[in-house]
Amino acid sequence: MRLCYACSKEPAEIFIDYSKRWLCINCFLNYYERKVKRTIEAYRMIKPNEKIGVAVSGGKDSTTLLYVLKKLYPSLNLTAIHLNLGVKEYSDHCNEVLRSFIKKLNVPLIEFNLIKQLGFSIHNFEKTRHGRKICSICGTIKRYLLNKIAYENKLDKLATGHNLDDIVEVIFNCYVQGDIVQLARVNPVLPGNHPKLVARIKPLCMMTEMENLLYASYAELPFRSLSCPLSKGNRSLKNKKFINAIILKEMPTFKHMLFKSYVKRIAPYINPPLEKIFECEICGMPTSKNICAFCRLTKIIKPLPQ
Ligand code: SF4
Ligand code: ZN
Q: Fewest CB within 10 angstroms: 56, 146, 153, 285, which?
């Protein structure tokens, strides 16, 4: 029987491929929490007395993020924010999974329902000219609303569950496309450069998707079992599949190397041209144009049939 590398007592169950170590369940959970804490401290993500909003979707990453933040910093002022996107079956399922979990954690929850509060859902974009890029539209809507909710509730920072795989996929895509502006947004901490833009932090940026799945499973956290039906053709999923299939077989350390080399050697030299920030003529939120992307998008859709 193989024993755990860390405690040398318990049977090892989990293999950490990039460090080539086998751990038992308990040592894995401890290793995970220590690594998240080190990341938060290394990037100075949280200051004492700050109010932190946590974007929760019902998936394994954001559920783990909320749970681990509460465990590591029990007195931290946390507020969970959940957007119900109105995606058939999927959104209600996510909502159900989240509610009882957040209640148990004793964290206040702000729920925002697109259909109830704005009269449309992500489905409304399917038949527009943006229909083939539905995830990118959904991303714009989510970023806008999460920031607005965090701003209106006077939260100091917004934490998201982006994991190492998410970040490496964006870096990879930006390198391929030569997209410096997007690349500058990959950093683990994004300061709000306007009074109405809330700073963003990514405490799970050093944890792989697999580590999050293992943590959520072994810590017995509830998370959604359905996939979003609109995710077909999603570019980021295709890129992740490519990175995992081609590169990782030969080089398990690839994701960590790419991320570290970006943060240490590339990010300090990226100075994308500073965009002038206006306030949207329709909603008053920050934008680089007269009308923000959210208001431009919502203008092109028709309300859902009742
Ligand atoms: Fe939105 Fe795409 Fe995610 Fe579905 S898969 S929730 S459409 S980003
Ligand atoms: Zn607007």
A: 153
- Answer yes or no: is the C-beta of 216 below 6 A from any ligand 1 atom: no
Position in ligand 1 atom list of the atom nearest CA 227: 5
The residues spanned by each domain of the chain are 1-42, 44-270
Residue given tokens 């943060």 in the structure block: 263
Distance of CA 265 to the CA centre of its chain: 24
Q: Is the minimum distance from the CB of 128 to ligand 1 under 6 angstroms?
A: no
* Closest atom of ligand 1 to CA, residue 85: 6
CA of 214 to the centre of ligand 1 (A): 23
Architecture of the domain defined by 44-270? 3-Layer(aba) Sandwich (3.40)
Shortest CA distance to 254 belongs to which of 168, 148, 178? 168
Question: Which residue lies with its CA nearest to atom 8 of ligand 1?
Answer: 135
- pTM higher than 0.90: yes
Q: With beta carbons less than 8 A apart as the criterion, state whether 298 and 118 touch.
A: yes
> What pLDDT band is residue 44 in, cutting at 50, 70 and 90?
very high
Q: pLDDT tens digits, residue range 158-194? A: 999 999 999 999 999 999 999 988 898 889 999 988 9
Give the ligand whose atoms come closest to the C-alpha of residue 233. Answer: 1
Q: Give, as one character, the DSSP assignment of residue 128.
A: S
Let me know the angle formed at the C-alpha of 78 by 74 and 82, rounded to the nearest 5 degrees: 135
* 116: Cβ contacts below 8 Å, ≥ 6 apart: 84
Contact indicator for 257, 266 with CB cutoff of 8 Å = no
pLDDT in tens, 193-207: 899 999 999 999 999
